[in-house]
Amino acid sequence: MIGFRTEAHFTRPAVACVVSTINAPAGVAIARGRLKGHGPRTFWRIQAAVHSVQMRVKTSSTMNREMFVDDVRIADGEDCYVIAEIGHNHQGDLNQCIKMFEMAKSCGVNAVKLQKRDNRALFTPEIYDAPYDHRNSYGRTYGEHREFLEFDAAQYRVLFDYASEIGITFFSTAFDLPSADFLEKFTPPAYKIASGDITNIPLIKRIASFGRPMFISTGGAEMDDVRRAYDAVMPINPKVCIMQCTSGYPPEYAELNLSVISTYREAFPDITIGYSGHDSGIAMALVAYVMGANVVEKHFTLNRALKGTDHAFSLEQPGLSKVVRDLRRARTAMGDGVKQRYASEEQPLYKMSKKLVAARPIAAGQQLAREDITMKSPGDGLPPWRIDELVGRTARRALGTDEAFDESDLA
Description:
By secondary structure, the protein is α/β, with parallel strands linked by helices. The chain folds into three domains: 2-61, no CATH class; 64-334, TIM Barrel (Alpha-Beta Barrel); 343-409, Antifreeze-like/N-acetylneuraminic acid synthase C-terminal domain (Type Iii Antifreeze Protein Isoform Hplc 12). It contains 15 helices and 14 strands. The strands form four sheets. The chain has an eight-stranded parallel beta barrel, surrounded by seven helices. The protein has a two-stranded antiparallel sheet with strand order 1-2. A two-stranded antiparallel sheet has the order 3-4. Strand 7, helix 8 and strand 8 form a beta-alpha-beta unit. Helix 3 (94-107) packs parallel to helix 7 (153-166) and helix 3 (94-107) packs parallel to helix 13 (317-334). The longest helix has 18 residues, at 317-334. The protein is elongated. The two termini are 57 Å apart. Residues 1-62 have low confidence and may be disordered.
């Protein structure tokens, strides 16, 4: 029998739960059972589900939910790994992008991320040449707009060198095969797969073949899509983080569905899980971490009023700093789950807690009744939970009103 456990973090017992204890045949039965009542399923989907359960059963004894990026360990019990998604909020300006790297570093994030597109390879002529005339446009057509925002190889070289100089991890989302090959020339520390490519198995496999850590967003996906991507990448490269995401810009809070983080932790117990948030506030990153996200990604901008589609829901420096601050505090605050009394509590509890004292004068040799005993602060004597032990005992000496009881006073 092999036990599967889903724990938001080993230091998070409040959200830890035992999911199931199964053997391989039972796991197959469960997988088949879950397919019932959901409409017709093709044979390959059934087989994939069965295989997925069997694979997890076979490997559960050696499972280790961790990943390393630039020697930083991403795992349960570690600080949340924070990615500042710059995207194209640099507005096609290399100097502005460098400034954003510097500011993100000052916020305490682990990594900054851009997006890379080979626009001619990515878009059909119909979309590339489509008019794109509105306040966020950087060109007359969508293609011109997108080209304006791209950095070339020389600019990427400057950015990789600068990131190394200031000590921050830098990588990009590759939106197409040429962009993946372009980025690989720089030996990046990691890759991101955008939500829109969760079904792009050829791209996922190409990037997996590089052998570098991969962050895969799942906005707009159903569970079948996520499992398909997982099954495609794991035999090639198990250094994967699957990230809950909702592809609204920004989405409604009711659509964030952070409980999917728990779903992913149960379904994929051998990889790290993350949250890529398009929400405009700072609170949900903390919720995601407490629910078990090892990684949080938030969009970052210099100014939310700048030209561009992503600035309005991105975080400025103060907001991003608070996200990192709260996530770091959260790990410390989670503690070890062992209930204990701290030295910092001694003085407040001295004044607030109670002790057992005489409710009225008591004569030596008197047998104590309940009415002879009351509770008063400070709490430097016998605790109130012992009151029933004192009833019926005999006073060895006389006690005045409010005088504290001591074991030596009682027979």
